[in-house]
Amino acid sequence: MAYNLTKLPDEAAYRKLFEETYCDHSKKIITFDKIEVSFHPAQFDHAFFESADRKLADKSSFSPVRAERIMWIKDTLEDSTSDLRIGWDKKKKSYDSSRRVAIVKGNYVVVIWLKNATAAKFVTAYEADTSIGKILASPKWTK
Asked: 68, 90, 95, 119: least surrounded by Cβ within 10 Å?
């Protein structure tokens, strides 16, 4: 896998790349195990913004660090060596086998929500600096 950083001039350029790469339905993103992942333009904000105040969790600040990893989402989904875990449902406070977390490069995670065995929706992607221990403690994901 490539896992190269993408350097663009500003938020608008990253947003355009996200929409062209991920949201164009004619360009299918398919995981290594044949799950088609759909993306929506509004997910850009969730994936590439951070909270200026962690307590507020307001996602108010564009993150160039997150954005530079924009192509890692596709790379991670296509990487058969990624570490797959069952995701956590914060509201239910339990593991949810319809949420799959793929981990690469030690702490980069991509979360998808499985609609069924062959279709999923992108949820988010980020470097899990402080939460990687909890994520790695999650049960392994098996199909």
From this structure: 90
